[in-house]
Design brief:
- The chain has 567 residues and is α+β, with helices and mostly antiparallel strands.
- The N and C termini lie far apart (53 Å).
- Strand 13 and strand 14 (367-368) form a beta hairpin.
- The longest helix has 13 residues, at 107-119.
- Helix 1 (7-18) packs parallel to helix 2 and helix 6 packs across helix 7.
- Strands 1-2-4-3-5-6-9-10-11-12 form a ten-stranded mixed sheet, sandwiched between helices. Strands 13, 14, 15, 17, 20, 22 and 23 form a seven-stranded antiparallel sheet that branches.
- The protein contains 14 helices and 23 strands.
């Protein structure tokens, strides 16, 4: 096979090969097919054959990013050396495929048509596996209920099934992810770099003017994201996103789902696994490592043995496909990497059975596992002086050079002692390690002088040496509190409860450490800056309204519930 690789790309090919055992075949020929869709559009489809044989099991992926194709080729070509026919298709309007690029819109019909074509090819031996990361994972999920019988399994990497909950958490928009993605994937040419567009966009308020002002045109998908705050709106309920959310329960074939603790798709990936039918889930596997969206480790902690599955999970892919498509080996076990313990742990279910340990927030800024006296803590929140994001899972802008210098994943925290709008509660020093697995719930009892506002929480570990690291975080507006599907009324100074469910984690707090909970009212640009006024956030300009915030503490007040695993 004549594959032209520059030295940088060839490094990925060699690293992928090193992640796998020695193959028994060699690279054969490569051909390009123009596969016709139901509307006549032809999609460019590259087929890579092994050197020996006439029929093979097929591994199929669909790719929307032309610039990534040489890397995909390099990383996945070693599968051909293991006796698989590799098929990589350019999505509509990208690469060498015909049609217009409209993100997500055409992938269901195009995917169904492409799989029908693939199932009829004479060089396919009756066994097809689909695979792909991120958008290429979406292209699998969205056709999972229409798989030909030849498709025996899917490997679903770093993509979630609940788009709404990824765009919004309790009414707060994830600026970093979707403003950066929108301007990087607009398809509109600009004299400015995509990184510069993103930086300028964050400064433009109202937010619904950003695309027109910077690109001279509107981006319909971005306008939907920033204006459709209510989960019960037609955009979310009568669209491809509702089909996606309902898809896991329709899956009949075994699947492997993989993600990373520092990935912005983590929550939706786990939901996808949890939503599978019991029968399908029993045959499927879940893998979560200490990775970000590109399967790199992040931040300021070390993660021994994080590369267990090799470059971009190719080792896991091969084990899974060998078992599902060839009947070889033992497949995979569900397993997660426990941060802090720095070890992989095999699991039977997710989340594992864990006890819900409640710790009250005390007026002395303690986390107390037991009786706590009543009291309250007040602070002022100024939208003109937001808390700047310092690590976390729900971040994407770092993926493109020039977008941001903000760190992602687990990072050492800054000293916020000079900020009066940051309140930190601390547990006693732990006399033994404490492991949590699953979701953590924070129940804040609060009031505000504003007609609407937000409260942000971040769970932390303060180590014996005084260093502090973020574990998980979450946020809620008052209007969309408790996962409300439409705005809820609020009267100034009324006491309300905000239930904030933090994303899943597997974390071991060390002996000598303290568990901490930071409470504030902002975390920008992970989330939009709340203006302390009610109404659609994307229609508002900058606000000078300062809110008086109150946290109610004690046995009947705010608390955190940890999913602690018994040793």
């Amino acid at each position: 096979m004549n594959i032209d690789m520059n030295p940088e790309v060839k490094k990925y090919y060699q690293k992928s090969k090193e992640s796998l055992p020695e193959g028994n075949d060699t690279l054969g020929k490569k051909i390009i097919e123009k596969v016709t869709m139901r509307d006549g559009i032809k999609l460019s489809t590259a087929i890579y054959f092994p050197n020996h044989g006439e029929k093979w099991p097929v591994l199929f992926t669909r790719n929307p990013y032309p610039n990534n194709k040489p890397l995909l080729e390099a990383i996945y070509l070693p599968f051909v050396e293991h006796g698989y026919c590799l098929v990589i298709q350019d999505c509509r309007g990208t690469g060498d495929s015909e049609g217009n690029w409209e993100p997500f819109t055409n992938e269901r019909e195009d995917g169904i048509d492409s799989l029908k074509w693939l199932s009829k090819q004479k060089w396919m031996n009756g066994n097809i596996g689909t695979f792909g990361r991120s958008y290429s994972c979406f292209t699998q999920w969205i056709v999972a209920d229409q798989m030909p019988e030849e498709v025996k399994t899917m490997f679903l990497d770093v993509y979630g099934v609940d788009r709404y909950s990824q765009v919004y958490m309790n009414g707060m928009f994830r600026e970093d992810i979707y403003t950066s993605w929108a301007f990087a994937n607009s398809g509109v040419k600009s004299e400015l770099s995509t990184g510069e567009l993103y930086k300028r966009a964050l400064k433009i308020l109202p937010a619904n003017k950003r695309d027109k002002q910077l690109l001279g045109t509107t981006l319909p998908f971005y306008q939907h994201y920033i204006t459709e705050v209510a989960e019960n709106s037609p955009y979310w309920k009568d669209s491809i996103w509702q089909i996606l959310k309902e898809m896991p329960q329709k899956v009949k074939i075994p699947v492997a789902i993989s993600d990373g603790w520092a990935d912005h798709h983590l929550d939706g990936s786990i939901l996808g696994f949890e939503s599978l039918s019991k029968e399908t889930q029993s045959k499927s596997r879940l893998i979560i490592g200490p990775w970000d969206h590109l399967q790199n480790t992040t931040g300021d902690m070390s993660y021994p043995e994080n590369d267990k599955f090799g470059l971009m999970n190719v080792g896991a892919y091969l084990s899974w496909f060998d078992y599902q498509l060839k009947g070889n080996g033992n497949g995979l076990e569900s397993q997660v990497y426990i941060i802090g313990k720095n070890a992989w742990q095999t699991i039977k279910d997710w989340p594992p059975s864990a006890g819900g340990t409640k710790m009250s927030l005390s007026p002395e800024k303690q986390l107390i596992n037991g009786n706590s006296k009543e009291g309250k803590i007040a602070f002022k929140y100024d939208p003109q002086n937001p808390l700047i994001t310092n690590g976390g899972s729900a971040l994407l802008a770092w993926i493109t050079p020039g977008f941001t210098n903000l760190p992602h994943g687990t990072v050492r925290q800054k000293d916020y002692s000079e900020r009066q709008d940051v309140v930190t509660f601390s547990s006693d020093v732990l006399n033994k390690p404490v492991t949590i697995m699953g979701k953590t719930t924070v129940n804040l009892i609060v009031s505000t002088s504003a007609e609407d506002t937000a409260f942000f929480v971040r769970m932390l570990e303060k180590k014996a040496d005084g260093s502090i690291y973020n574990v998980a975080d979450g946020i809620s507006s008052i209007s969309y509190r408790n996962h409300a599907v439409k705005p809820l009324p609020y009267k100034n100074f009324d006491k309300v409860e905000l239930t904030i469910t933090l994303w899943d984690t597997a974390w071991e707090f060390q002996k000598g450490s303290q568990i901490q909970l930071l409470v504030s009212s902002s975390n920008f640009p992970m989330y939009n800056i709340h203006s302390n006024t009610k109404g659609p956030w994307a229609e508002k300009g900058a606000s000078n309204i300062i809110a008086d915030q109150t946290i109610y503490c004690g046995n009947s007040g705010s608390n955190i519930i940890l999913s602690i695993i018994s040793e």
